[in-house]
From TrEMBL:
<protein>
    <submittedName>
        <fullName>Uncharacterized protein</fullName>
    </submittedName>
</protein>
Length: 432
C-alpha cells in the first residue's frame, strides 16, 4: 500500500471509530464519506459564475493565520446574517474605502453581525479586494476550463497554467494582479476548490512532503545547501511565503504531490469509495488526504473522532507500517520544538511592538521567563527529541523500502541575480 492508501485507510476505518459506541462509529464513518464526496463534487472543473467564485473564497481572509475555532464562529454569524451575500455590495465603496469601514460595515457591526475576526478592518479590506478581483478571476478560470475542454493543452501545460493563475492572485504580474490578503497558498486553496490541478501547500503538506524519502536531498540541491546540512522542521514551509513561493512550489511540492497522485492512481486508492475519474479529482483527493493526516477537523462536520497522528502516536497493535508511526512521532516532536522556538521569537516581537510602558513591562517579564536557563534547556531538549524522532523516521523508511519518484525540474529554487529560474516556466508566457 502507498502512503496515501494507508492514510485513507486510517481516516476512514479508524479515525471515525467511537470507543464503545458502534452506532456512532457507523454514523461517523458515513459522515466522513459524505463530507469527502461533497468536497470532490464541489471541486469538479466546470464553468463558474462570479457568484460561485465569490462564495467559495470570501471567508478565506478571515482564516489566514487564524485558528478555525477562533474565526469559524464569527464567519458563520456573518454568513447567517447575509453580510457577505451580495458580491456587488461588498465590492462597493459602501463596504470599505481602503481600510476604513463604510456604512454597510458600520451597520453590520452595530447589529452584532460582524464580530471577532470578521470585524477587523484589515481583514474586511482584504475581503473587499477579493470582491473587486472576482470578475478577473472568473475570466481566467473559465478560460482555463475552455482550454481544457478544447484539449489544446497537455496535462503538464494545464497544470502550469493553473499554477500561473495562482501566482498571479498571490504574487501578481498577470491579468488578475495581486489580490490583497491572498498569498500563494491561499490562492492555491481557492483554485483547488474550483477544480484546477493545484495543491494547497499548507504547513502540514510542506512538513510531510519534506519528510518523504529523498526529498530532503532534493531540497538541499534546490537551495544549494551542503550535503549534510540539517533541514529544519519548517524549512519548506518558510519558502512558501512571499514572492518566491511559486518557485518553491514548482521545484519541490508539485513534483512530490504529483508522484503521490500517480501512485494513488496506479494502486486504485479509494476507488471503491469515491469517483476520482473526473478531471483533476484525484489530485484533490490526495491533497485532502495528506492534509488530514495531521490537521484537526470538526468532529460533527467531518466525522473524525481523532487525527491519524494522534492514533499512531499512542497506537498499540494497529497494523500500519513502522515508517508511518515514526512519521507521526516526528511531526509531534517537531511541532513541540517548533512551538517552543516560536514562543521565544513572539515574545521578543511583543517587546518591540509594545506601544505603552505597561505593555512593554508585561512583554519584558514574559521574555525574561523564556530566556531563563531552564527555558533554554527545555528548548534544547525538545530540539534533541525532534532530531532523534527524525533519525528514527529515516531509519524506519529505509527499512521499509519506502519510495516516491518525483519528476523534479532542473535548477535552483533560490532566485539568481537575473531573477530567473534555471528551468523554463512555459505557462507564464501564455498569460494575457
Amino acid at each position: 500500500m502507498t502512503i496515501i492508501a494507508h492514510i485513507h485507510h486510517l481516516l476512514l476505518n479508524y479515525c471515525t471509530l467511537c470507543e464503545h459506541n458502534e452506532a456512532r462509529s457507523q454514523v461517523q464513518r458515513q459522515r466522513y464519506l459524505d463530507r469527502v464526496t461533497r468536497i470532490l463534487t464541489s471541486s469538479r472543473l466546470v464553468q463558474r459564475t462570479e457568484e460561485q467564485i465569490w462564495n467559495l473564497g470570501w471567508d478565506k481572509p478571515f482564516f489566514a493565520y487564524n485558528a478555525a475555532g477562533t474565526a469559524g464562529p464569527a464567519v458563520e454569524r456573518a454568513r447567517a446574517a447575509g453580510v457577505f451575500a451580495c458580491l456587488d455590495a461588498v465590492a462597493s465603496p459602501q463596504f470599505m474605502i481602503g481600510e476604513v469601514p463604510g456604512p454597510l460595515v458600520e451597520d453590520a457591526v452595530a447589529r452584532g453581525h460582524l464580530a471577532g475576526a470578521c470585524a477587523v478592518p484589515f481583514r474586511l479590506a482584504r475581503v473587499h479586494a477579493y470582491a473587486r478581483a472576482v470578475p478577473r478571476i472568473a475570466h481566467q478560470v473559465n478560460r482555463f476550463y475552455d482550454d481544457w475542454q478544447a484539449a489544446v493543452l497537455g496535462a503538464d501545460e494545464l497544470q502550469e497554467r493553473a499554477v500561473a493563475i495562482a501566482e498571479d492572485i498571490g504574487v501578481g504580474g498577470g491579468p488578475i494582479g495581486k489580490v490583497d490578503g491572498f498569498g500563494f497558498t491561499t490562492a492555491c486553496h481557492l483554485l483547488a476548490d474550483l477544480g484546477l490541478p493545484v495543491f494547497k501547500p499548507d504547513i502540514w503538506v510542506c512538513r510531510i512532503v519534506s519528510a518523504l524519502p529523498g526529498v530532503r536531498t532534493e531540497i538541499r540541491r534546490a537551495w544549494r545547501l551542503a550535503e549534510d546540512a540539517p533541514v529544519s522542521f519548517d524549512f519548506l514551509e518558510s519558502k512558501l511565503v512571499g514572492g518566491c513561493a511559486p518557485d518553491a512550489y514548482r521545484r519541490i511540492v508539485q513534483p512530490v504531490m504529483n508522484a503521490l497522485v500517480r501512485d494513488a492512481q496506479v494502486h486504485g486508492v479509494a476507488a471503491a469509495e469515491f469517483d476520482l475519474v473526473p478531471a483533476f479529482l484525484r489530485p484533490r483527493f490526495v491533497d485532502w488526504t495528506l492534509v488530514h493526516f495531521a490537521i484537526s477537523a470538526e468532529t460533527e462536520v467531518y466525522g473524525l473522532e481523532r487525527r491519524p497522528v494522534d492514533m499512531l502516536r499512542s497506537a498499540g497493535e494497529l497494523s500500519v507500517p513502522g515508517y508511518l508511526k515514526a512519521l507521526a512521532l516526528w511531526l509531534d516532536a517537531g511541532q513541540a520544538s517548533h512551538e517552543a522556538v516560536v514562543a521565544l521569537k513572539n515574545a521578543e516581537a511583543r517587546v518591540r511592538r509594545a506601544k505603552s510602558p505597561e505593555q512593554r513591562e508585561r512583554a519584558q517579564r514574559r521574555l525574561a521567563l523564556l530566556r531563563l536557563p531552564a527555558a533554554q534547556t527545555r528548548r534544547d531538549e525538545l530540539a534533541a527529541q525532534a532530531q532523534a524522532a527524525w533519525m528514527a523516521h529515516e531509519a524506519a523508511s529505509t527499512a521499509a523500502g519506502q519510495t516516491v519518484a518525483p519528476l523534479y525540474p532542473e535548477g535552483f529554487a533560490r532566485r539568481e541575480p537575473a531573477g530567473a529560474w534555471a528551468y523554463k516556466r512555459a505557462a507564464l508566457a501564455r498569460r494575457e
